């Protein structure tokens, strides 16, 4: 109820500011999932600063929503109401009540390049689904990565396929840039000297709806530390909605063997540093596969997630590009013994990507701004 009142309040100010003229050279970015320079929003903004320095760029982030209510409800509503283009990396529920000028382009970039688990209207129910459907009607351009994702996302967002564009996602341009990724890896090791000379394993579990206020790690960290080699370090990356309630106290037993990197600004740098990825149902695999490195799928709650969670678009065990394990012992065994992975990762990449040319951002700017 409180959230809905917030949506109404934002919409009320937005409606009041609609009397102001819309500026074609003003762009409003809604980055409530990833406001780093490595996310889709940050990359598009950087490209616009370079190509059109005369544009006015405005931003709304998750921090604005939580910490600066006056700016959020008044200043951000004004900026959004007077912008000629709006970019988003997530659903923005106040948009359900904000009638957008027909001349305004509303571009949904989302924050994942694909999705194993069901998202959006494929999983939302009740009032949330109604609000999301209304908000998504404002979308004029839904940007996706492939023909497969086009059909999936068009349905999940309730957006017609003729407003869904297969261009590739801006963040993949950076990941495909080998020079940039080597630099990111080097910079991280300079920032964290304890990583130098170490094999880094990135653990990035997915967002679970029931763990927002009570995050849990499905790992016995003390046991894990005893099993790890001295030249290994586990980098923990929790989903932003979960990380803010996670306590580092549970990591005290691990020393520098396990490091919480959930607050690190931008996951691309962490992927650059990771020699191996451990995940479960996260969309991070769509970007990590571009690095041609091994992945392990620690699906400890697979049956529960399938029955009571979001379920999947594909048959999970056959779809993911790596071995599936369901216990910590299995995880450590396969981690230490090694496994075949190259062919699976290559096949996955071929199926999921129509563009591997590092020009997704260029195509997007040409479509939206003709530049």
Structural class by SSE content: alpha/beta
Helix/strand order, N-terminal first: HEHEHHEEHEHEHHEHEHEHEHEHHEHHH
> Mind describing the biggest β-sheet?
6 strands, parallel
**Shape label:** globular
The CA-CA distance between the termini, in Å, is 43 Å
- The tally of helices reads 17
Mean pLDDT across the residues is 91
Kindly describe this structure.
- With 371 residues, the chain is α/β, with parallel strands linked by helices.
- The chain has helices at 2-17, 40-51, 62-67, 69-81, 126-136, 147-157, 170-175, 178-191, 221-227, 240-243, 267-273, 284-288, 302-308, 316-319, 328-337, 342-352, 360-369; strands spanning 23-31, 56-61, 83-88, 105-108, 141-144, 164-166, 199-204, 232-236, 258-260, 276-279, 295-298, 324-325.
- The relative contact order is 0.13.
Write out key terms for the chains shown:
371 residues, alpha/beta, 6-stranded parallel beta sheet, 42% helix, single chain, globular
Secondary-structure blueprint of this entry?
Blueprint: H1 2-17, E1 23-31, H2 40-51, E2 56-61, H3 62-67, H4 69-81, E3 83-88, E4 105-108, H5 126-136, E5 141-144, H6 147-157, E6 164-166, H7 170-175, H8 178-191, E7 199-204, H9 221-227, E8 232-236, H10 240-243, E9 258-260, H11 267-273, E10 276-279, H12 284-288, E11 295-298, H13 302-308, H14 316-319, E12 324-325, H15 328-337, H16 342-352, H17 360-369
Parallel strand pairs: 1-2, 1-3, 3-4, 4-5, 5-6, 7-8, 7-10, 8-9, 10-11, 11-12
Helix pairs in contact: 1-4, 8-11
């Amino acid at each position: 109820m409180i959230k809905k009142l917030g949506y109404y309040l934002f919409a009320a100010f937005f409606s009041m500011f609609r009397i102001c003229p819309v500026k074609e050279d003003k762009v409003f970015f809604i980055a409530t999932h990833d406001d780093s320079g490595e996310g889709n929003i940050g990359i598009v903004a950087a490209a616009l600063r370079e190509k059109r320095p005369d544009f006015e760029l405005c931003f709304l982030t998750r921090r604005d929503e939580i910490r600066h209510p006056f700016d959020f409800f008044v200043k951000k509503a004004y900026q959004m109401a007077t912008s000629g283009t709006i970019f988003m990396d997530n659903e923005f529920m106040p948009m359900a009540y904000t009638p957008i000028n027909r001349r305004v382009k509303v571009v949904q970039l989302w924050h994942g390049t694909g999705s194993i688990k069901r998202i959006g209207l494929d999983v939302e129910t009740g009032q949330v689904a109604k609000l999301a459907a209304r908000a998504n009607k404002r979308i004029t351009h839904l940007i996706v990565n492939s023909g497969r994702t086009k059909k999936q996302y068009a349905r999940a967002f309730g957006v017609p396929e003729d407003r869904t564009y297969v261009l590739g996602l801006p963040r993949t341009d950076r990941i495909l840039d080998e020079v940039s990724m080597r630099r990111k890896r080097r910079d991280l090791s300079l920032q964290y000297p304890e990583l130098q000379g170490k094999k880094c394993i990135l653990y990035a579990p997915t967002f679970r709806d029931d763990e927002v206020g009570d995050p849990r790690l499905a790992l016995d960290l003390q046991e894990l530390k005893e099993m790890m080699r001295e030249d290994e370090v586990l980098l923990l990356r929790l989903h932003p909605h979960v990380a803010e309630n996670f306590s580092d106290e549970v990591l005290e037993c691990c020393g520098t063997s396990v490091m919480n990197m959930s607050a690190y600004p931008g996951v691309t740098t962490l992927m650059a540093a990771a020699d191996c990825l451990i995940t479960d149902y996260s969309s991070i695999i769509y970007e990590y596969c571009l690095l041609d490195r091994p992945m392990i799928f620690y699906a400890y709650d697979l049956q529960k997630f399938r029955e009571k969670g979001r379920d999947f678009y594909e048959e999970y065990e056959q779809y993911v590009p790596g071995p599936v394990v369901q216990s910590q012992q299995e995880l450590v065994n396969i981690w230490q013994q090694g496994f075949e992975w190259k062919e699976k990762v290559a096949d996955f990449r071929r199926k999921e990507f129509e563009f591997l040319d590092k020009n997704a951002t260029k195509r997007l700017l040409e479509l939206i701004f003709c530049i």
